[in-house]
Amino acid sequence: MSLKINLKEIALKKPLILSGHRLCAGCGASIIVRQVLSVLRGPTILVNATGCLEVATTIYPYTSWQLPWIHNAFENAAATASGIEAGIKAMIRKGRYKYDHVDVICFAGDGGTYDIGIQALSGAFERGHDFLYILYDNEAYMNTGIQRSGGTPLGAATTTSPAGTVIPGKTEHKKPIADIAVAHRIPYVATATPAHWADLMRKVRKGIEVNGPAFIHAFSPCPRGWRTPAGKSIEIAKLAVDTCFFPLWECENGVWKLTDRSLAVARNPKLKKPIEEYLKPQGRFRHLFKPENRHVIKELQERVDRIWEDLLKRCENI
Amino acid sequence: MMVKQKVMGLSGDEAVAWAVKQCDVDMVAAYPITPQTIIVERFSEFVANGEVETEFVACESEHSALSACVGAAAVGARTFTATAANGLALMWEIVYIASSLRLPIVMAIVNRALSGPICIHCDHGDSMGCRDASWIQLYCEDAQEVYDTVIQAFRIGEHPKVQLPVMVMLDGFVLSHTLQNVKILPDEVVKEFVGVRKPVEVEIPYLGGKVPLVLDPEKPLTFGPLDLYNYYYEHKMQQHEAMENAREVIETINEEYSKISGRKYGNGLIETYGLEDAEIATIVLGSTAGTVRSVVKQLRKNGIKAGVLRLRTFRPFPAKEIVEALKNVKVIGVLDRSGPFGGYGAPVFLETRAIFYDEDPRPVIVNYVYGLGGRDMHPGLVKQVYDDLQKILETGKIERHIKFIGVRE
Amino acid sequence: MSELKGWREVPIAGVCWKLSTEFKTGDWRTFKPIIDQNKCIKCLICWVYCPDEAIKWDGEKVSVNYDFCKGCGICANECPVKAIEMVLE
Predict the structure, then answer these.
(1) Checking CA distances to C85, which of A5, B114, B377, C34 falls within 20 to 30 Å?
(2) What's the domain range around B96?
(3) Which of B219, B235, B236, B240 has the most C C-beta neighbours within 10 Å, making it the best mutation to test the interface with C?
(4) CA distance B157 to chain A (A)
């Protein structure tokens, strides 16, 4: 069932995340959340892991949420969602719940997903709970001060992987979290960016509608942590896709497809830009442009190319 | 109005499972750990045979198990979990969060020693370790009490003046794995006693008034916000007040339950034996109380004025009741099944001494640490304690305030 | 801000009781977006990209809610017809 997205209609609906939250100017996470919440289909409950989004939208006694929302702890968004789904299932079975169905959506950062949250995520996937997990990936533990996470890319400078004179930023590659989700053989996995909003919205709606666990890896530019101007967040997301650093794909029951701009790039390889164009505007990669660190850019380009080649081989719709 | 009860041979763990079976629980999320495993196994059998309508979530860790309970309880479901020792240690973070969110989750703790070295045997170090987490803590002496207390726990936690999670303790292996005769109430009687969970209401201006304290798409509440220094303290005061309210609720539920079952446990907070004219007495928690009582009976036959106070409710600490019950006792020995490790005495001893500080005259209060890691506290050792207390009574001399019973030098 | 309440007055369980719309983030900005209504084609790209729900569509016109606009400049950067200009406040 394809979703009809008419911005003029959606923009008239009451917002489910209100203004007045304290996320940074230009924050990718808030754009993602606004887009996600504009395509819900019915009663929805949100679970939010500790992080920028959770903290900035619920400074007691204020809340920006016009949906039922719970924050439990850092690493257990998926476990909390499991409990919500199971509790509601039981109450419906006993005829004691007013709704026939409630959609459960998790929002968690790379902090609460790649590293500390991966156990709960994997467990929830294995048990097959019906929920959608949206990872807003700003590629570091931003809320606590830009420390590296499993989602931080190679070479990025963070406070725990600084660009030093001996070690030029993070020395490990970004963990392929969406691939890990696919490996669990859950019904739906996709990548998305807020820049490619129609693609993101379509995928979110699919994730909601699918029966069983769904996972969306959303790219979340962070002006503060990436040292980019606040107004360039969407532009950076577009570059991430154009350079194939963050390809847009979906995997539905094991069938891989490229989507939106990434599909266009696959069909017309001339559109693929070199990784340097993505790295240049970001302060966190500035040190890589020194002659002694250029090898890192080369390594990053090789990695991006290899992953892109793998995708081209396995995607069925090119 | 007493009902006909069936007698079943059940272990402590099985008694927990049977109580949960009858209490119309909506969701059970658990992770196995010896000696709690039988609770989860027995309950899984009930689920697999369609004997309960409970959703069973076999979580991938204790931390996730309690997290799932938090989620389910937040949408209004009645939830239960069980664990021991390191499992409790792993979920420690969520233990505090569950009580701060005022969710009436019931958790059975099968008391076991905390690693390391890894030891699966009985010890109270695990539940004592989170005594300040704002959970109600009830210690059971036998499998019958375990069954009765789990049932009562749902009513206590869900009471509108309480709204706190409840831990029900049973001694690892000593109670969990030994068969006892347990009188089981009929299904309908238990179902009527526990009723259906009814969430309390809170006043929320932006939602136009009073709304149920649950995650409801119609009345969108925000649970678990960020507190700064301007409100955390106030939120903790609310939990403190709820703990204070719990005393009376525990007593009332104990009384109400006795009407349908014929069984009550003292006044719900403490249970006493021989304290009317006792000169020496001990305070004890859990299954050891049975051993102590039999030793006291023997001592009485020999003319020693001994008594024992079994502390059923450790949190909230029944200060008034303990002081009143022991007011004529001259020497009190507090038995602790967890270590001091740098404290001036172990947990129960410290609180007991504190509540008697303002009394005049003050009894002598000494501490006997025992049974760590499942070290058996047999009648001989209990008698040793009472002999010691008697000696203090007769000579007025206290060797040491803290003694370790049953350890080899 | 309003007076702080005591522990007997606030709801239990730490649930929030005020909406964030009472907190005007408009005073964060240095630059403010000005929409040239003549150039605006009402594509609503600015609306879909605004992090703060500070772009309003009333069915006829696009406008900025200056109470909350943090002046990030994404709208101006992404407008396909360059109808938005960031002006020093």
Answers:
(1) A5
(2) 6-198+243-261
(3) B235
(4) 18
